[in-house]
Write the structure tokens for this entry.
Amino acid sequence: MTAENVRTNVAAELARADEALRAASVLLREGLYNDSISDAYYATFHAVRALLFTLGEEPRSHRGALHLFNLHFVRTGKFEARHLSAFAQAQYDRTSADYGAVRRFSRDEAASELTLANEFIQAVRGYLKGEGFPG
């Protein structure tokens, strides 16, 4: 992957993260809490993909993204363990929201997930900016 491709992919993933955050916010406002949970997760997922592209990594699965984020960013001290926990919890909640027919998330749970996604993405943007990528 060329340096230009990396920059293009990072920017595209951040744009997808922003779009998913916006969608999660609209869904929360409309009372569609499970869908808001799902989109909040996808916002963090796309932010993690942006990070991984800076290393030439492209995860093959959601679980792979979690593993690579831990390996390259948390264990190396670039991100705190709380970011890994937030991403893992968002991933778990997204699975419950999308596939758990009886699991209904509350407004407070969806709002909390959206807040965590916003904080996560701001941390990613800060890191990327420090590495010379547009945040």
